[in-house]
Amino acid sequence: MSSQAMISLVIPVYNEEENLRLLIERIHPVMQQMNRPYEIILVDDGSKDNSLSILKNLTVWPEVKVVALVRNYGQHAAIFAGFSIAKGEIIITLDADLQNPPEEIPGLVLKMEDGEYDVVGTIRTQRQDSIFRIMASKLINMVARKITKVGMSDWGCMLRAYRRPVVERMIACHEHSTFIPALAVYFGKHVTEIKVAHDERARGLSNYPLRKLINLQFDLVSSFSDLPLKALLYGGIVMASGGILFGISLAVARLVYGAHWAAQGIFTLFAILFVFVGLQFFAFGILGEYIGRIYREVRKRPEYVIDKVYGSDASE
Ligand code: UDP
Ligand code: MG
Questions:
Q1: Ligand 1 nearest atom to the CA of residue 205, by list position
Q2: Host domain of residue 184
Q3: Of 12, 149, 222, 232, whose CB is crowded by the most CB atoms within 10 A?
Q4: 1 is a domain residue
Q5: What is the pLDDT of residues 142-177, one digit of tens each?
């Protein structure tokens, strides 16, 4: 591939008014240094602050394009909206809060072109997040490795490079509850990863409260495997057999020790009952998550709706 391949940066933006200018100021020198055609696609994911008007002002730079979505669809849907207008041969995603240093972009491109890779992932060294987030990520990465059967070590870092065909295959999927890094690995033949730095969020707060985080991780698991459903089945079998054995042993104990002994066991039984009822609700919850996702797919509502595109060759 020619060293002049165009690069598209796709950046989802949700309430990042304080970071946008700094972001562009840091990206430009890096891209200019690389000396090849590029575009910066910023997708406003229905921000409630001033992000969109700041973004519109940034379109004075000819490389900047802004996609305004109708409402907040979530980070991954926003990236898809960016993918849909990206023209580059190499498409790189990164976060708007400067946690992914733009200075790492040349390294990603170099790795991709040197090794003829389709997807270059990243591993965050010295991650600047809360202990809770880091521990949660460790668990998620482990699960993701199991279900995708790909040994990527860090799935959460969005600073990643994809070749155009991989992105086109992803767009063709039209999936709602999906997780881009995992989907890309599914469609890429040669996949690798490099180490990158990770910074603290420049300004503002994370847009991922626990609820959104759990939802996203469930998207990752549910869109690539029926593992939770299987776990339910096997868990159910184990629990049921355990219950039967327990019942038998209680009956035997009653025969051996008499009715007096059995009455004393009544609270234990209640406790066990609660555990089973709890597990049952948990099981229904998992089923519900899958059914909810199936329902969303069946409705065939668009994953995102673009309100307007601003920038050089756009309609405005
Ligand atoms: N983001 C988005 N839509 C959302 C939530 C987040 O486009 O509904 C963007 C956000 O602006 C940022 C990136 O996704 O560019 C990652 O979000 P954040 O930094 O809040 O997540 P964290 O780094 O805490 O995982
Ligand atoms: Mg962040």
A1: 20
A2: 7-225+301-311
A3: 12
A4: no
A5: 888 887 777 788 888 999 999 999 999 999 988 887
User: Which ligand 1 atom lies nearest to the CA of residue 12?
Assistant: 7
| Residue 315: per-residue pLDDT | 47
- 42 has which bridge partners? 11, 66
23 and 110 in a single domain? The answer is yes
The fraction of the chain above a pLDDT of 70, given in percent, is 96
The model's pLDDT over 88-99, given as tens digits with 9 standing for 90+, comes to 999 999 999 999
Number of the ligand closest to the Cα of 13:
1
CA of 179 to the centre of ligand 1 (A): 14
Among the bound ligands, the one closest to the CA of 156: 1
Helix (H, G, I), strand (E, B) or coil at 14: coil
CA distance 276 to 259: 25
Tell me the pLDDT tens digit for each residue of 288-297.
888 888 888 8
Of ligand 1's listed atoms, the one at least distance from the Cα of 213 is 25
**Which one of the ligands is nearest to 77 CA?**
1
Distance 248 CA to ligand 1 centre (A): 54
Ligand 1 centroid, distance to 75 Cα (angstroms) = 6
- Residue 247 shares a structural domain with residue 210: no
Ligand 1 atom closest to Cα of 79?
A: 7
Whether the CB-CB separation of 287 and 232 falls below 8 Å is answered with yes
Length of the chain in residues, anyone?
Answer: 316
Pair 73, 117 in one domain: yes
Q: How many domains does the chain have?
A: 2
Q: Is the dihedral of CA 128, 13, 52, 30 positive or negative?
A: positive
Beta bridge partners of 309: 67
Ligand 2 center from residue 203 Cα (angstroms) = 10
